[in-house]
UniProtKB/TrEMBL annotation, chain A:
This is Regulator. It comes from the Bacteria. It comes from Sulfitobacter aestuariivivens. Residues 11-44 form the Anti-sigma factor NepR domain. The lineage of its organism: Bacteria, Pseudomonadati, Pseudomonadota, Alphaproteobacteria, Rhodobacterales. It holds the Pfam family NepR. InterPro entries: NepR.
UniProtKB/TrEMBL annotation, chain B:
The keyword Transcription applies. GO terms for biological process: DNA-templated transcription initiation. Keywords: Sigma factor, Transcription, Transcription regulation. The keyword Nucleotidyltransferase does not apply. Pfam families: Sigma70_r2, Sigma70_r4_2. This is RNA polymerase sigma factor. InterPro entries: RNA_pol_sigma-70-like (IPR039425), RNA_pol_sigma-70_dom (IPR014284), RNA_pol_sigma70_r2 (IPR007627), RNA_pol_sigma70_r4_t2 (IPR013249), RNA_pol_sigma_r2 (IPR013325), RNA_pol_sigma_r3/r4-like (IPR013324), WH-like_DNA-bd_sf (IPR036388).
Length: 51, 185
């Protein structure tokens, strides 16, 4: 009985955790990060050309 | 342009990195700064990434290290926030889905960073205890005890503590229990 309650409690917690995480996932990613990656790439390419 | 540059994979991990950062810090702008720092670090240290290993684990490791070193620098204390939240949560245990999520978020925010982190890695991101231990630079047993303590604390904060067995028991079970009690007399 007690262990059943414990498992139930854990699965409720894990479900909520996943929901918190998934909600953050679904927010999408601001453009600034993709822009940053593009910028880093460009920097590297220019360095390669110079060297 | 080199072939199969692991840096091209970074973009795929952005949503998960951000979700982890937001869940860990509970603050969108702090999280975004962390993700930005992590991207730059990952980009410039890509030679330290071992091809064929889990890139997400590698990125999460950089992310969490960034967070903890920033925390050490600013010496921000989360404890003053805790008192306020404890009172609010103690006020009323709600039972409908939406309120339950709100309470859960508050409870999650009250955990120590290390406990919340362990729970997020193992419970939400699907890493094994071993992977999480490696990422956090601690023993597997430490991760296990952190997640156990985090779960117990969350259950306590969510009001599933001592009265748990009663709250969890549905009508059908109750009737069986009372029936068996009656018959034993």
């Amino acid at each position: 009985m007690q262990s059943g309650g414990k498992n139930n409690r854990e699965s409720v917690i894990d479900e909520n955790l996943k929901r918190v995480f998934d909600e953050a996932l679904e927010e999408g990613v601001p453009d600034r990060f993709k822009d940053l990656l593009d910028q880093l790439k460009k920097q590297d390419e220019e360095q390669d050309k110079r060297s | 342009m080199s072939h199969a540059d692991p840096r091209d994979e970074l973009v795929e991990h952005l949503p998960a990195m951000r979700a982890f950062a937001i869940s860990l810090t509970r603050n969108g702008s702090v999280a975004d700064d962390m993700v930005q720092d992590t991207l730059v670090k990952a980009w410039t240290n890509i030679d330290k990434f071992q091809a064929g290993t889990n890139m997400r684990a590698w990125l999460f490791t950089i992310l969490r290290n960034t967070y903890y070193s920033a925390r050490r620098k600013s010496k921000r204390e989360v404890s003053d926030v805790d008192g306020v939240l404890t009172e609010k949560i103690a006020e009323k245990p709600a039972h409908d889905g939406h309120m339950q999520m709100t309470d859960f978020r508050k409870a999650l925010a009250q955990l120590k960073d290390e406990q919340r982190e362990a729970l997020l890695l193992v419970g939400a991101s699907g890493f094994s205890y071993e992977e999480a231990a490696q990422m956090c630079g601690v023993a597997v047993g430490t991760i296990k005890s952190r997640t156990n303590r985090a779960r117990a604390r969350l259950a306590e904060l969510m009001g599933h503590g001592e009265n748990e067995s009663l709250e969890m028991t549905d009508d059908a079970t109750m009737s069986v229990i009372s029936a068996s009690k009656t018959s034993s007399f």
